[in-house]
User: Fold these one by one.
Assistant:
Number 1:
Amino acid sequence: MSETTTATPAKSSKKMLWLVLGIALLLVLFFVFAWGLQKRESTQLQGAPAPSFTLTSFEGEEYTLEGLRGTPLVINFWASWCVECYKEAALLEQAYKDYQGKVLFLGIDYLDTEKDALAYMEKYGITYPSGPDIESRIARDYRITGVPETFFINTEGQIIHVQIGPIERPQLYQLLERLTGGGAS
Amino acid sequence: MKKYVFPLMFIIVAAIFALQATPTVAQEPTEPTMDQVNTVAKNLNCPTCKGLNLEDCRTQTCNQWRDQIKDLLAQGYTEQEVLDWFVARFGVEVLQEPPPKGNGLFAWLLPLFGFAVGVGWLVFLLRKWSVHKTPESSAIDPEDNIDVEYLEKIEQDLKEF
């Protein structure tokens, strides 16, 4: 009690300044952490323009979103170690053949080794272009939460659907119809 | 005949030495041991399980990555070159310890910053407490507004006691 009565006004204002600065710093740190912790999911991209990307396939061909503008796209994130990816591998290949020339399928190999990825493609007979996601940049931009995830992109470069997990045949063909303008939107 | 014995013996001995030396010169590259693979693997993160390193994880992904390390070591890559290969292919996030530059610098400086703030806060509190305690331990200030009659009563009571 006696301290407060003896403290000079200059000293108290200095203390107050430090206190305000400390609180401001804590608030800044809190907002930085809150921003970092906020959920970033691929489904949030549904209806939004697809992030641009550059993919070099295992065969050495380069694909960019800008270069493919005007062609409906199906982008499938997969990995050879992903058990769920096995379930849709043959279906995707069949759909690619059924819609060849109308829809382009691209496989993006996520956190995988080339040797195992090529063995996987051979095992499931995948013939549509597929390539490694260098430094996981495409996966980060598309905010994927795991594999498999499939993005359906229309001719304007807009994501019309994000499929988390393996896709079933009726849904896949319905979405392909939407992409080619044959189905209800 | 005797004059040929010594050169012949010399040729035979030289041939034996040459045969023994041959395997050392034409040695096949040895396959990396699991210890060598794990020495590199412990510096990398499992890509699918959070918080586990590649050495300890037993998922299929990590088995494949350990095979990749083995392949690279067998090709003659050094440990650092293998780590560089993984960073170039999968990004800097694969490293157990982020490099102290760019965003990785934040991971190194933040704990230091937290520690400095903690120590500063502790010093501030200790100083505050010591300032508070000093007047309490000193004698009563006669200038303080204390009831004199009450003090005299206490002193009287103490004397009687």
Number 2:
Amino acid sequence: MQYLNAFWVGGLLCAIAQILIDKTKLTPARILVLYVVIGAALGAVGIYDKIVDYAGAGATVPLMGFGNVLAQGVKKAVDADGPLGIITGGASAAAGGISAAVFFGFVIALIFNPKAK
Amino acid sequence: MPDNKNKDYLNYIDKTAPKSPMLKNIALAFVIGGLICVIGQLIGDFYKKVCDLDAESAKTAVSVTMVFLGALLTGLDIYPKIAKYAGAGTIVPITGFANSITSPAMEFKREGLVLGMSAKMFVVAGPVLVYGITSSVVVGIIYFLYKVMIGG
Amino acid sequence: MAVRLGNQTMALEKNVSIINTATVVGTKESEGPLSPYFDVKMKDAEWGEETWEKTESKMQKEAAKLAIRKAGRRPSDIHCAFAGDLLNQCISSGFSARELGIPYYGLYGACSTMIEGLSLGALAIDGGGMNAAIAVASSHFCTAERQYRNPLEYGGQRPPTAQWTVTGAAAAVLEGGDCAPYITHVTSGKVVDFGVIDQNNMGGAMAPAAIDTLCAHFADTGRSPKDYDLILSGDLGKIGREIVINMMNSNGYNMNDNYGDSGCMIYDIERQDVHAGGSGCGCIAVTVCGYIFEMMKNGKLNDVLILGTGALLSPTSSLQGESVPGIAHAVALSNRPGGER
């Protein structure tokens, strides 16, 4: 059941983005920014975690999940460290994804060359 | 430069320009995006059941793994081929984030490893980090003030 | 000296001949319908070079050298090169000219560059200051993509209005003399901007400039579309071509029968998945120097009006919200001196 939920929720988030791309001429970069900010907002008020409970990876893999991780992280850090957590919380929680993207991006780019289309 | 006298022309080319095949695009984005999430779910369950990770660590491990796969498929010239059909289905998942970092890094390697590859790595993904982290700080400030007021 | 006709056109007084041409194209172009007319077909996008910028420069240099050789001349016989490309600071042309050792003027007219070069070369020869000139232009899909759009491996979708940048370079050797085909008229274009913002709809953005120059050419010369065997624009693509036919019709010019666009000719649009067609300096350049030159040489075409169209945008201007200005330059080619009937 979790797999079905992951499929349709994840698919739906992508389909909405596709509608935005085709209908509004918003560039993909703007849509990603929009998704991260929405994810952070939904995460801050605790709604996104409910979607994660329901859809699992269908909610964590799309970029909104990244926004949610940032928001959850900052709340936890504020609880633990007070005001300093405002600055450290988000990035610490997202450190895995960010460091992985930088490192793997670096290594892959060293190994492979772009191919002409 | 553009003004109202050209409005008719702009309307005319808007009308005549071929439109993206919306239904097909949306269906493909839905299916391929959904499948990428299912793969994420599979990897997460693998980490939880086989590697015995707790739920939080498994989530991070899934992100790291998906980012790796996105970067690798970009290097192998497979990701853009899927993306041609999937559109947002490959942009929105975290694999797309990896693609948006890896592709400029590869492309600008020829301008040097420091000022080319590394400097250009974030031309597409940079805004996501800037807005994401800035949002988290804003959330943090609001949450902190909220706690002070409730607790105070 | 050329004679001024109307507001924008010059009728050349001397016989300015295109004595020979050469073309270099990439793999996608050599799989297209115009393939038989191209001289050098690259096996890959690199042609033995480390970067695509170097490849593009080599393409220009080799096209120029081959055209000069085919014309039976030496580089020292050529008094001046008029060359351009799409890249910032015209590096393909500048670095190619570094090797050629021919006096060089760098041009930027976006995709209209080849026709700008033919115009200026012909006028310079007609003016008497030089007897032989070469016009060169190039574009390369990979160099253009990274400058104007996204990295090649970035996963994105191209909208159906998008055009595919041609990998191609072409050169034409011009000389005062009696060797058909001749450049008989030059119509200089104005920059026209109807406010199209969408940089993925170049055809729509450039069509008003094309129409402006076409109307000026017909008004200035007193000619009409039927005076030409072929009117060739490049590169408006499928969308721009239809706009031109429709709007020229409402201006009283019938272009239904003898009008083509290089963006629609260079690829098999459906089979090669190029959406609205080809674009880039190389598009009209290789079409004119390959196909048109051959067809005029063997007499299948005798009077051709070539209209080079360009979109004068940059990534910076687009980010700043500017619309896409268009330009179009026309040259009339004829197998008879002066195009006289």
